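Quick check before the chapter quiz. The format below is the same one you will see on the exam, so make sure you can read both the input and the output lines.
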Amino acid sequence: MADEKTTQAKTTKETTDNTETTETTRRNFLKYAWVALGAVALGEGALVTYQFFAPKASEGEFGGVFNAGLVDDYPPGSVTPFNAGRFYLVRQEDGGFLALYRKCTHLGCAVPWDQAEGKFICPCHASAFEADGEVLNPPAPRPLDRFPITINENGEILVDTGSAIQRDHPHADDAIYA
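Here is the expected output.
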């Protein structure tokens, strides 16, 4: 009988111990709450970091792809500015297309097209560029950068402003033909 009481007491104590371990104490609750809040803060920090470094290019904005319209909309010898895309679409006399970045290769100033003189002239340091981007007047060290152009099956000109192509000299194969 004494063994029976001892066994019953042990069982009661084990049950009580099990109940105590499953019961959440204030200390454990606060510990888990801080861990959860830390995980949420870490997740938010990772999301903000990703959004900061992720490319924000979308169609029709600088860094994305621009639909410049149809090939027939541009007469030979024309230079058309695309301010939102930060480039000029140049239709050469022979029918080729160039998309030139409007940033000067000297110090990064915005270079406007001077229709009267038929060239790009940097307002900061007087660098001048031909219609194909070639340097006419230093201090610019190289020609204007260009953007890749594709012409789709519908005759639409697509300019990808996501990656500027640096070049030492303009080449005949820089132009894209329809």
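If your answer matched, good. The radius of gyration is 34 Å.
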